[in-house]
Design goal:
Blueprint (H helix, E strand, L loop, with lengths): L18 H10 L5 E5 L3 E7 L16 E5 L2 E7 L1 H22 L5 H14 L11 E9 L3 E7 L5 E3 L2 E4 L3 H11 L6 H15 L10 E8 L5 E5 L2 H11 L5 H8 L1
Antiparallel strand pairs: 1-2, 1-8, 2-9, 3-4, 4-5, 5-6, 6-7, 9-10
Length: 254
């Protein structure tokens, strides 16, 4: 039955489903692990890069994390070329708002604007949905630090911690157990590293395979975005890696 209704985004199946939109959501689950965690004094995004090579010029290439403005950035999971188009729209919307009103665009308003674009691509013939999900993180004066998730259908939701991409169910389970109200930046970074060690399909996660970014309040009280250095990422992942004998010790105590 599905095959009769899955060639167009504009045709509902008898069960009330839009199959092309659902297939776009499934594409997200094949992307590298992408984690967002809200702390009391910052918001963190981290992502697993699928394209890694020592010949790659890291200064000119970003696969997971993209700056929108000084107060906001996003992580992507899905088709990166689709994401590039939408990221340009995000940046233009944020810059236009700052130019018009003299202040940064509220995070929820920016998220809503990009979801309106995504939803439009599910409603007209001849178009296909954008095969990308975003985690949008940022800060504004009204609501402080915020984290939002968007999907290809145009839906969005606010979260305290969220994961998209491969093994996202495992990541969500760990964060449900370990995330707590009032977490500080360092605790949230350690939780992010712990989740990634459990969800990535590699025995040795390091800075070559990962991107970490944060929006935080500096000592002067100004909000700023920065990417973590390779040394910071490597230390976080080394500290989060299971130590030798931990598994054996747990078994012997049983």
């Amino acid at each position: 039955m599905a095959r009769r209704y899955d060639s167009q985004t504009t045709t509902f199946s008898p069960e009330g489903r839009l199959y092309q939109v659902e297939y776009a959501m499934e594409a997200i689950n094949l992307a590298g692990s992408t984690i967002g965690i809200l702390a009391d004094d910052a918001v963190i995004l981290a992502g697993e890069k699928k394209t890694t090579s020592k010949l790659l010029d890291q200064g000119k290439q970003h696969e997971k994390l993209f700056k929108i403005d000084d107060n906001m950035f996003c992580a992507v999971a899905g088709i990166t070329s689709d994401a590039n188009v939408l990221i340009n729209k995000l940046r233009v919307s944020a810059a236009r708002h700052a130019y018009t009103y003299g202040e940064s665009m509220p995070v929820e308003q920016l998220t809503t604007s990009i979801c309106d674009v995504k939803q439009g691509y599910t409603q007209f013939g001849g178009l296909r949905p954008f095969g990308v999900s975003f985690l949008i993180a940022g800060y504004d004066e009204s609501h402080g630090f915020q984290l939002y998730h968007t999907d290809p259908s145009g839906n969005f939701s606010g979260w305290k911690a969220y994961a998209i991409g491969i093994n996202n169910n495992t990541a969500q389970q760990i964060m449900r157990q370990d995330w707590k109200e009032g977490m500080k930046l360092q605790e949230a970074l350690e939780l992010t590293a712990k989740v990634l060690t459990k969800t990535m399909d590699t025995a040795n996660p390091n800075a070559e395979k990962l991107e970490f970014g944060i929006v935080e309040k500096t000592a002067s009280g100004k909000v700023a975005f920065r990417m973590l250095s390779d040394a910071e990422v490597n230390k976080l992942m080394a500290d989060a890696a299971p130590k030798e004998g931990e598994g054996e010790g747990a078994k012997s105590s049983d």
